[in-house]
Amino acid sequence: QVRLKESGPRLVQPSQTLSVTCTVSGFSVTSYHVSWVRQPPGKGLEWVGAIWKGGSTDYNSALKSRLSISRDTSKNQVFLKMNSLQTDDTGTYYCAKHGNGPFAYWGQGTLVTVSS
Amino acid sequence: DIVMTQSPSSLAVSAGETVTINCKSSQSLFGSVRQKNYLAWYQQKPGQSPKLLIYLASTRESGVPDRFIGSGSGTDFTLTISSVQAEDLANYYCQQYYDTPYTFGAGTKLELK
Fold first, then answer.
1. Residue of A38, A47, A69, A92 to mutate, testing the B interface (most B Cβ within 10 Å of its Cβ)
2. pLDDT score of B70
3. What is the mean pLDDT of chain B?
């Protein structure tokens, strides 16, 4: 059974770094791609970036300078790190599994609030 | 980046009605190799993660009721929900996966009239 679960801090101070972990089961992160998608409260979906099954990454150009996605294949985990956080980075962060196609499996999401 | 323009932003319906949601991309999503359109539709209910409904513009994901119909090609796409049921009240998003950065439409909120 495919599962993805995000974990991370609920509150981050402005200018600090966000670290979120996506722990997956039911598939290997070396066999499928994993993307991060975020959603501000009451707003739409924004693709943040992806780590491809081969290990390379691709980022939303608007976030690229602040963003890093990596993985630990031994633990089947994918990591999102975003620095210099601002209040408009507040939202729910999802990880999603996909092949060369749409996002068929999503985690439950983790709500991150950027506030002092 | 490919811009996805979705309309309307909200739609008030009565149970049993048929509704249409439109999605237009700023460039063609038709892939010449597979001869397919790389367009997906998702449903998101309050407090839940998005759920994949349709991919390749018109293929229903397993378990999705056949009242959800995706159509279109190139740059213009439509999600039709025939005989809307109360459980269909949600937000709907289109997404292109033709090229990165993957982009979503702004969403359509389906509400009860």
1. A47
2. 98
3. 97
Among B33, B34, B32, B52, which residue's Cα sits nearest to residue B43?
B52
Of A44, A50, A59, the CB nearest to B104: A44
∠ CA B39-B108-B85, nearest 5°, is 100
- The 10s digit of each residue's pLDDT in A54-72 is 999 999 999 999 999 999 9
Count other Cβ atoms within 10 Å, centred on residue B50: 25
Smallest Cβ distance to A109: which of B1, B49, B100? Answer: B49
Burial of B66 (0-12, 13-18, 19+ CB in 10 A): exposed
Considering only CA atoms, which of A36, A110, A104 is closest in space to residue A67? Answer: A36
List the one residue out of A18, A20, A49, A17 whose CA is nearest residue A33.
Answer: A49
For residue A50, list chain B residues with Cβ-Cβ distance below 8 A. Answer: 100, 102
Cis? peptide before B46, omega within 30° of 0:
no
Give the model's confidence band at B23: pLDDT under 50 very low, under 70 low, under 90 confident, else very high: very high
Token output for B90: 């949600």
Residues B26-60 have pLDDT tens digits of 999 999 888 999 999 999 999 999 999 999 999 99
Interface of B with A (CB under 8 A): 1, 38, 40, 42, 44, 49-52, 55-56, 61, 93, 95, 97, 100-107
Q: B49–A106: do the CB atoms touch at under 8 Å?
A: yes
